[in-house]
Amino acid sequence: MQDYINCNKRPLIFLGSNIVMNQLKEICEDYDIEIHGIIDNDYHSSGKEFCGIPVIDTEKSFQDPDRLNFYRANFNFFCATNWIPEKNPVQERNREKRNNLINLLDQYQLPVISLVDNKANVSKYASVGRGVFIDAICNIEPDVVIDDYVWIGWASGIGHGTRIERNCVIQRQVWTGGFCHFESECFIGIGAKTLKTKARFGKGTWIQEMVYIKRGTVPGEIVGLDGTNNRRVVVPQSVN
Q1: Which pLDDT does position 156 carry in this prediction?
Q2: How many Cα atoms within 13 Å fall on the side-chain side of residue 108?
Q3: How many CB atoms are located within 10 Å of the residue 96 CB?
Q4: Picking from 27-36, 128-137, 209-218, which range would have the lowest pLDDT averaged per residue?
Q5: Least confident segment among 51-60, 138-147, 161-170
Q6: What is residue 231's predicted lDDT score, i.e. its pLDDT?
Q7: C-alpha dist (Å) from residue 39 to 42, 58, 92, 178, 220
Q8: How many Cα atoms are found within 13 Å in the side-chain-facing hemisphere of 184?
Q9: 3-state class (DSSP) for residue 222
Q10: Which of 107, 145, 153, 196 has the highest CB neighbour count under 10 A?
Q11: Are 234 and 223 in contact (CB under 8 A)?
């Protein structure tokens, strides 16, 4: 397994935050990862905390060369802000914020680790990128390739040979067929199943919760259920 997974050689700073911070804290506790604090414009003020973690600075700190060099030399980082594809001002802002934080990590070449629950099963023949979260009871089969900043929720199963590109979200209890390919920024809802081997899912695909799909998708496609829950509704959308 890659040495940046659950790396405890340096204290950890979270960029951004979300409602599952305590879950991320538990993984850190299990692997003796010291949490130094959170950098988040939204919560930074004197004495401010989020889930018991001190909010230590704002993202603007990286514009100061001395502070940037201090952070880069002494800490690891993890982007904790998550996203969902719903079209409302709050979620649109969350997506924009996550993208901005990921861009900061890349732009300033900050050392990014991945967090994998100790109750997850990740094959030694799988590849996991940086900034990845893998929750408990997940099963990552051999020859799976997970790119940077992917989020995989509780009890999901990723079929052998599958590729998941950058910044995808695989929600809880999702199963994928073998040799599938998820292009970047796909969102697979709770309990969904992608049942066709070698299916390709275009960039920005949104498969809504509890949908079983036996085909691939085009970029920006939404696959959901109608009000009677008895058929799929496909709504193509453009992707930026």
Answers
A1: 98
A2: 25
A3: 11
A4: 209-218
A5: 51-60
A6: 41
A7: 9, 5, 20, 38, 32
A8: 8
A9: strand
A10: 153
A11: yes
Helices marked H in 13-162 — which ranges?
21-30, 65-74, 89-107
Q: How far apart are CA 129 and CA 62, in angstroms?
A: 23
pLDDT at 230: 42
Q: Which of 141, 163, 160, 159 is nearest to 150 (CA)?
A: 163
- The residue-averaged pLDDT of 4-16 equals 97
First to last CA, the chain: 34
Q: Set out the domains of the chain in order of their start, with CATH numbers.
A: 12-107 (3.40.50), 116-240 (2.160.10.10)
Cα(200)–Cα(180) distance, integer angstroms? 6
Show the tokens assigned to 211.
């949908």
Beta bridge partner(s), residue 135 = none
pLDDT tens profile 144-164: 999 999 999 999 999 999 999
Matching residue, tokens 């695909």: 205
